[in-house]
Amino acid sequence: SSEKAISIWPSNLSAQQQLTLLIAQQAPVINTGQKEQDELSRLLLNISQQLNRLQGEQVNNRLHQQQNPESNQLQMSLPYLHEEQVHWCQMEWQGEEQQAQDKEQAFSWHLVLRFAQHQSSAFAIESQMMQNQLHITLWAEQQDQLKHLHQHMNVLQTRLTETGFNVSSLKSKHGMPPLKSNPISSSLVDVHT
Fold first, then answer.
1. Stated pTM of the model
2. 149: how many CB neighbours lie within 10 A of its CB?
3. How far apart are CA 132 and CA 13, in angstroms?
4. Dist. CA 93–CA 184, nearest whole Å
5. What does the pLDDT look like over 150-160, one tens digit per residue?
6. Half-sphere exposure at residue 144, Cβ-oriented, CA atoms within 13 angstroms
7. In terms of C-beta distances under 8 Å and separation of at least 24 residues, what long-range contacts does 46-49 make, across chains too?
């Protein structure tokens, strides 16, 4: 490559380099056994991989916004803490202007959170909001998980109401909401010619 070439991937976005430097700096300071150092290295590598995943999703979302400036759509992974463990859910958000009943324009949004994907305990929360009216559907493919979600619907509705939401409907459904696709165009480049 030429010395005048411009890098299309800024170095300040690379969490991998920063974590590798952190490991190199901290390894001599940490006075632990080999097992603990291996565990620390594994945890830091996992953090690095998750940060790279988030960065890739951010780049994809930005590309989608550039290619479709009128689109209000976002897809990304979100970390959450459950029983002192970090887990990830997939978030799909879409906002749009719609004409309300009183003929005024109103902004509405549609949000889907998918939890424990590819596991038997997988479930999703789908919510839609327009003019301060919140509609929620709890989804699960496994009957036991659906029953578990249904048992907690009153608690969810109470907490949302206490938070200030006007919950118009709260229901549970068997299955999963359809996946939204982020239509990002991509092309392959032959680097060998």
1. 0.63
2. 18
3. 38
4. 16
5. 999 999 999 99
6. 4
7. 47/19, 48/15, 48/16, 48/19, 48/20
